[in-house]
């Protein structure tokens, strides 16, 4: 395989890995970040509304 | 072993903060991140009958959220650009597939050497940020085809059915998406020239 073909192959592999990457190592993430109480309430209500309208 | 779908009423408590942190890390806007989490949960509710249990519920929810994030970024890109600029941008993000090669098949635009390695992507936050921006700049169907293949792991047949296209079209979409993404990444986040 040619030099640039190898590079392209590696790039495409990196794209695949990056797209599939699941979030966060422990040191990357600020665990104090949470949904606010209001947001949580709003999402809960939206899900409830959706479920009640879903046959 | 197949994963059972948990009670949707438990999703928010179990995964809400996790999904929020992921969305926030990508869009950097707390209010938008909250909306994205809500959209992801609603989309998950809508498609829960399609959950096949091949991944964990968490992974499934993250995949749905990634689609929402890319849609959000694309919308922001479209709002930022005028119609004319959008056309130009679409053209740039969607080059003809042969732009990389000359008429006899030699490399015209040679792939640069990227300084990231697949196993160390966690350490490359900037790379991932740029990747999501580039995904947001792709034409909608290219982005969808790419996400369906690479994140959702769908087969060609499933992608064709979801997008209502032929197998040949799906291969072209995927090829263009991949080539556009790598070109976009090289433009916005360049590896070592060689």
Order of helices and strands of chain B: HHHHHHHH
* Percent of residues in helices of chain A: 55-70%
Specify the biggest β-sheet of chain B: none
**Which stretches of chain A are poorly predicted, pLDDT < 50 over at least 5 residues?**
none
Mean pLDDT score of chain A: 84
Outline of chain B, from the CA principal axes? globular
Could you tell me the radius of gyration of chain A in angstroms? 21 Å
By secondary-structure content and strand pairing, the structural class of chain A works out as mainly alpha
Number of DSSP E strands of chain A: 0
Radius of gyration of chain B: 18 Å
Molecular shape of chain A: elongated
Greatest interface (CB-CB under 8 A), with counts per chain = A-B, 37 and 46 residues
Beta strand count of chain B: 0
Oligomer: heterodimer
Structural summary, described in words:
The complex is a heterodimer of chains A (55) and B (194). Chain A is mainly α and 55 residues long. Chain A is built from two helices and no strands. Chain A has helices spanning 3-20, 37-53. The longest helix of chain A is centred in the first third of the chain and has 18 residues, at 3-20. Chain A starts with a helix and ends with a helix. The relative contact order of chain A is 0.07. Chain B is mainly alpha-helical and 194 residues long. Chain B has eight helices and no strands. In chain B, helix 2 (30-46) crosses helix 3 and helix 3 packs antiparallel against helix 6. Mean pLDDT of chain B is 83; it is low at 82-95. At the A-B interface, helix 1 and helix 2 of A face helix 1, helix 2, helix 3, helix 5 and helix 6 of B.
Search tags:
heterodimer; A: 55 residues; mainly alpha; 2 helices; 64% helix; B: mainly alpha; 8 helices; globular
What secondary-structure arrangement, pairings included, does this model have?
The complex is a heterodimer of chains A (55) and B (194).
Chain A: H1 3-20, H2 37-53
Chain B: H1 8-27, H2 30-46, H3 57-80, H4 83-93, H5 125-137, H6 140-150, H7 156-163, H8 167-188
Helix pairs in contact in B: 1-2, 1-3, 2-3, 3-5, 3-6, 5-8, 6-8, 7-8
């Amino acid at each position: 395989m040619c030099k640039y073909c190898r590079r392209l192959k590696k790039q495409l592999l990196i794209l695949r890995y990056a797209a599939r990457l699941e979030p966060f190592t422990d040191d990357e993430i600020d665990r104090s970040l949470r949904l606010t109480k209001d947001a949580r309430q709003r999402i809960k209500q939206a899900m409830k509304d959706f479920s009640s309208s879903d046959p | 072993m197949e994963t059972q779908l948990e009670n949707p009423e438990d999703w928010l408590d179990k995964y809400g903060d996790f999904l929020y942190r992921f969305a926030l890390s990508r869009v950097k806007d707390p209010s938008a991140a909250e909306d994205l989490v809500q959209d992801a949960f609603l989309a998950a509710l809508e498609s829960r009958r399609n959950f096949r249990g091949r991944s964990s519920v968490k992974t499934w929810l993250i995949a749905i959220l990634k689609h929402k994030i890319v849609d959000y970024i694309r919308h922001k890109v479209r709002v930022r650009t005028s119609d004319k600029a959008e056309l130009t941008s679409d053209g740039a993000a969607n080059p003809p597939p042969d732009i990389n090669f000359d008429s006899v098949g030699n490399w015209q635009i040679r792939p640069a050497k990227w300084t990231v390695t697949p196993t160390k992507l966690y350490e490359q936050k900037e790379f991932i940020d740029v990747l999501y921006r580039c995904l947001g700049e792709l034409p909608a169907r290219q982005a969808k085809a790419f996400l369906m293949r690479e994140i959702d792991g769908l087969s060609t047949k499933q992608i064709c059915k979801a997008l209502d296209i032929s197998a040949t079209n799906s291969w072209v979409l995927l090829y263009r998406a991949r080539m556009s993404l790598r070109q976009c990444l090289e433009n916005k986040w360049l590896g070592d020239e060689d």
